[in-house]
Amino acid sequence: MNKAIVTCAITGVLTDPRVYPAPVTPEQMARESKAAIDAGASVIHVHFRQLEPGQGHLPSWQPEVAKAVVAAIRDACPGVVINQTTGTVGPDIPGPVACLQAVRPEVAALNAGSLNYLKTKSDGGWAWPPMLFDNPVEKINAFLAAMKQSGSSPEFECFDTGIVRTAAAIARLGGFARAPKYNFVMGVESGMPTDPDLLPILLKLIAEGARWSVTAIGRAEIWPLHRRAAELGGDLRTGLEDTIYLPDGSRARGNGELIDALVASARAAGREIATSDEARIGMGLSHG
Description:
By secondary structure, this protein is an alpha/beta fold. It has helices spanning 26-39, 63-76, 94-103, 137-150, 161-173, 199-203, 222-231, 255-268, 276-282, and strands at 6-9, 43-46, 81-84, 107-111, 115-117, 131-133, 153-158, 181-186, 212-216, 235-238. The radius of gyration is 17 Å and the shape is globular.
C-alpha cells in the first residue's frame, strides 16, 4: 500500500493552552481529533494532561485520565487508531506503563535512544535548563515488554542518526514479527535539522521493509520536509504538538487546519491518503 498514513499529534507534553490552541480535557481532545480525522488523519497521537484548574499545561500519567481521554476520542472518531506517548525523563516508568495497560493503544511511541535536549535563545542563554532525555537500552526493553503486554505496536522515535541506527539494532535483536515503524523527529535544536536532504540517508539506516514517518518541528521550514517525505513514500504527521504554523506562515487555529495543509501537500506529491482501515492493514494492526 502506497497510500500515506496521516497521524495528528493533537497536543504535546508541555504545549501551553494559555498560549496555543492545544486541547486539554477529554472533550477538547475528542473535538480536535474529530477535526483531524475529518481532514484526513487516521491516527491520533495523544499525550495526557492534568485536568485540575490551571494545570492543563502539565502532563498526566493517571490511568483514569488516559482512559477518559481515549474513550472520548474513540467515541467521537469510530475506527481511529490511537498512538500513545510514553516519553518520560528518568528511569521511573510505572505511570506510562499504567496508561498503556489502561488504554491498550494500537500503537505506542517508543523513544529509541538518549539525547541532550537543548534549545538556545537569541540572547545567548538557554530556553530551559539543559536536560538529558535519557532512554538507555534497559528502559527501552522495559517499555517493549509493556507494549507487548498491552498489544501495542512500537513506533521508534528517532531524534538523530545514531538513534535511527540504535532502533535498527533493537529491531534485529527484538524478534519482531514485522519491521517496526520509525518516526524521524526533525527540528529539535540538538537533534536532526529539518533538512529534506537527510531523508535519503536515513532511509538507508532503517530495517528493511519498515514504514516510516517524519515529525517536523518548526515553522514554515517544515513544509518542504513534509513534501519530500511524501515524495519518498513516507507516512505523514503534524499537529499542535509539532507546530502551530501553516505553510503561508499564519498561525493555525486548530489541528484540522494543519492536517488539511498536510493532506494537500501529500496529494500535490502524488500520494493518496489512507483511511483508518487501510492504516491498520498498512501497519499490520488487528481490527477493533
